[in-house]
What we know:
Number of strands: 0
Order of helices and strands: HHH
Mean pLDDT: 75
Radius of gyration: 16 Å
Strand content: under 5%
Distance between the termini: 46 Å
Region (Disordered): 1-77
Amino acid sequence: MNNITNPTGGSALGNNQGAVGASNAGQHNDVGDKAFDAAAKKSGHNVSSSTSEKITDGARGAFEKATGKQVNSKISN
């Protein structure tokens, strides 16, 4: 039962290894997004690119609100 596939040809067993990196391949990620994606992957969580973007944007906004300083655009845009 190792080779079960769904009608579209992909694995029906949910092999999502590398899904975080693959979903962001066409987008320009800043350093904050890349760091979050790496941490999520290392911890074993599969986070979609839109969810990842929302989380990092929220963290950036919270930092800016708390400190009154803008985050460098090289780190988070």
